[in-house]
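Board notes (copied after class):
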Amino acid sequence: MIEDEKVIELREDGEATGIEEERPDPNQEVVQIERPFDADKIKVARETKTVSLLCTRIDHDEIDLAPEFQRRARIWDQGRKGRLIESILLRIPLPVFYVASDLRDVWSVVDGLQRMTTIHDFVNDEFPLRGLEYLVQFEKAKFSELPRNMQRRIEETELVINVIQPGTPEEVMFNIFSRINTGGMTLNSQEIRHALNKGPVRSFLVDLVSTEEFKTATSDSVSDVRMSARECALRFCAFYLSDWKDYKNNDLDGFLNAAMKRINEMSEDARDELKSAFKRSMSASYKLLGDEAF
């Protein structure tokens, strides 16, 4: 068997660098992944930010913590928060954070929301340390009460952040959101759509499911704890705004995501008209089908 040919890398001045570079075997098969999407379309940059810089970004609204997002921030108990800060003080590396960047370099948190808010809140003196396992001398201490060397250790801790770049196709972004989540609760499709689509569509869907017409038609039985009600309203909007023939390839996620984008781009008057159509349809559903409508 013929070994792969090896060449010596040269500097610009023609001198050898001493680094050997392997040429790929031309007979080796190149694997191209096309499903569920072209893997080459994923654009993710790895960055490191200190805790201090991360907190500054949050304070300047340059990180969207999406308080309306159902995977709510700040749901950890005091013990879990304390152990996270203790890990930083012990210099134990934290898991990688994932964020999605828009064209203004504003980040939306994909994974690491609880860790990020915990670190920010502690640095801002919003809770004392509880439930420490090793650094018990700092039990009940707030950030301002720690020795300066411990404060500096937290502020200068570097966090590894994978930044999903703008321009990454929607179907790729959607798949990344659905797969990457270490918070213990896998995101459902509507939660992902909510995270991806900032703008008036978020509050618009809340308005729809808050109407008396929707509550009556559904007997107030469609829970919105995980945005199920909002997805129900969005399905109406998607099929109302588009001809049913436009729904192709059994891609409901893509169809609904496109509808959210379209609602975001509508004028306020057009959204008001859509809301009126929704309310009329809910009333008609209840008149025709009663409690069996949903």
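Comment from the instructor: The two ends are 68 Å apart (CA to CA). Residues 1-14, 16-22 have pLDDT under 50 and may be disordered.
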